[in-house]
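Entries read sequence, tokenised fold; example below:

***
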Amino acid sequence: MPEGHSVHRVALQLGADFVGRRVAASSPQGRFAAGAALLDGLEMSEAFAVGKHLLVGFGSAERDEARWLRVHLGLYGAWDFHGRVSPIGAEALGVGSIGAPRVRRAVRIGEVERALDDGAFPPEPVGQVRLRLLTEESVADLRGPSRCEVIDWGGVEALLAKAGPDPRAPFWADPEGEFVRRLRARRVAVGQLLMDQSVVSGIGNIYRAEMLFRARLDPFTPGAAVPAELARELWRDWERLLDVGVATGVMLTRDDVPAEQALADRSVRWAVYGRAGEPCYRCGTRVALADMAGRKLFWCPGCQV
């Protein structure tokens, strides 16, 4: 499942190439034809992410007057960008996971970000494209989301009221304090709470495993038993890791591996995730695997105590 950094990168891409432009909206597969008709011909006014939710405003710069596209990519969703695709994140500085800055390219942003072959513009829709957004220079194709709907600002506010804080979304006066309060208010395992989007927004299975490893924290520790200072350190680590993910398009979590090596070699990006039965890089204990609330949990029983 795409984690929070990917959705923030989609918002940045839309902001770079679509916001401020009139957009032709359509549903090539037909499943979102009514929703696309509500957006067709309107100017895109804003795009931002809150955790795994993408929110895109159309038709008015006043939030309470705009129509809002809400997208959750779910397990398999992704956005394909073609035509003018401006550099974002670290790419704008000449570094990143896709390459040096260039204006014309094609890219898919989902669970894994990768370059696509670029041909004639606009390309013919290929496969099950739920929503196509088209300007004179750029096209964005949405595939396989679990949620895609048009809502009003009241619907956006209802979503924000239920969401846990996101370090990159300015909707909480004290996001760190709110995270600490929500985490320590429950006796549920911290490994489960980090995946609870009402506690903190954007963390998925990979970031969950890696953050707990970096904190040397047993994933089965109840949230209420996590010391306040350690909870604050978890939040600050999430801020750092999310910024790196947004900048590079890659979940990089190992401080002992140079970023250039990790960008080039997926196998060295993570310390415990996907490494069940292999020796821990830190203490040599074999990485364990368990089920937690229906998701695979990776951790080191030797140094996460």
Q: What stands out?
A: DSSP finds eight helices and twelve strands in the chain. Residues 92-104 have pLDDT under 50 and may be disordered.
